[in-house]
Amino acid sequence: MKKILVMAFLGLACAASAQTIEAGNHSTTGYIKSDGTIENSSHSTKGYIKSNGTIENSSHSTIGYIKDNGTIENASHSTVGYVKKDGTVENSSHSTIGYIKDNGTVENASHSTIGHASGVKKEWAAVVFFFFKFN
């Protein structure tokens, strides 16, 4: 019994360490680990979101930034978009390009579901779905 409990705990701990990123049809496209590591569906590292908001590619080169106010910038500190507290995602001209719902559903500007990122910070989901490609 003790062995079963330990195995169950380890399984839950591993599952909790990464949130699944899914396409609109719920097929897994990748993962975001709690430390900000972005992986594809084969668990190959494609990028990182650091605790200070720096966004890096798989080679650790800085490709952008997430500011505390929800502003998303590229490596040159030019604003590429915004993530509002309500989950609305805007481009640099403040035109709405999508939505990140509280339940993790990701929608385009027409409210069509394009993906799912349950348990992922809204800014992180926006970075993955709208601003930077981690293929």
Instruction: Tell me the strand order in the biggest sheet.
Output: 1-2-3-4-5-6-7-8-9-10-11-12
Please tell me how large the radius of gyration is: 16 Å
Mean pLDDT: 88
Give the number of helices. Answer: 2
The total of beta strands comes to 12
The shape is: globular
Helix content: 10-25%
Distance between the termini: 42 Å
Q: Main beta sheet, described?
A: 12 strands, antiparallel, barrel
Low-pLDDT segments: 1-16
Q: What proportion of the residues form beta strands (DSSP E)?
A: 35-45%
State the order of secondary-structure elements, H for helix, E for strand.
HEEEEEEEEEEEEH
- Structural class call reads alpha+beta
Structure description:
The chain has helices at residues 2-16, 122-131, and strands spanning 18-23, 28-33, 37-40, 45-49, 54-57, 62-66, 71-74, 79-83, 88-91, 96-100, 105-108, 113-116. 28% of the residues are buried. A twelve-stranded antiparallel β-barrel has the order 1-2-3-4-5-6-7-8-9-10-11-12. Helices cover 19% and strands 41% of the residues. By secondary structure, it is of the alpha+beta class.
